């Protein structure tokens, strides 16, 4: 039964798991990252998620679907006092991150990763344990028949609300207008979240320290304007 639930959940929120075959060096870097930083959901979650990290961290943030890891790597360097959990089920994306940390000297002490369905991790984490959640350029599933696969939905917002600390941030970036509108409507309808934007610059300007991503660069080249939304957990 658990495997059936996992299969349905996985099919609901992301697509393929593998791209091109990894080169031996990539494969080795990925194995090292998984061996040293993968979160094991087979054991009980710690009461204090900061203990997932070997060093001392002040808070813990979560990035769901980090792609090639451009933003995650930037935030790791900018906020060494924070712990980061990166979730990416796409093997080639995880391998790209693994290669980057390998070239930089090894897995940062403030990084932990999960390589499967983010909803499983969200259900495992203790309540009010996360300071921020980033969902950046998620798959928009543009066809109406696939909208049920969009990660932003009432059930997942309930999950976000459960694990976020009061005052915690949920950040959502996308270049797809319909998904931006969808997210605004769903967060507005959810009692746990508020959108504190005061002017257009609050969603047109990238987040502080934003490094840009390859997905964003492609969107801009193709004439799509990104939006950067921030919601607060009440």
Helices and strands, in order, run as: HHEHEHEHEHEHEHHE
Helix content: 25-40%
**Spans of at least 5 consecutive residues with low confidence:** 1-11
Give the end-to-end Cα distance, rounded to a whole number of Å: 35 Å
Query: How many beta-strand elements?
Result: 7
Which architecture does the CATH hierarchy give at level 2? Answer: 3-Layer(aba) Sandwich
Write down the overall mean pLDDT.
91
Question: Globular, elongated, flat, extended or rod-shaped: what is the shape?
Answer: globular
Strand content: 15-25%
CATH classification, class level: Alpha Beta
CATH topology: Rossmann fold
Count structural domains.
1
Q: Strand order within the widest sheet?
A: 3-2-1-4-5-7-6
Tell me the radius of gyration: 17 Å
Helix tally equals: 9
Main sheet overview: 7 strands, mixed
Catalytic activity: guanosine(46) in tRNA + S-adenosyl-L-methionine = N(7)-methylguanosine(46) in tRNA + S-adenosyl-L-homocysteine
GO molecular function: tRNA (guanine(46)-N7)-methyltransferase activity
Pathway: tRNA modification; N(7)-methylguanine-tRNA biosynthesis
Function: Catalyzes the formation of N(7)-methylguanine at position 46 (m7G46) in tRNA.
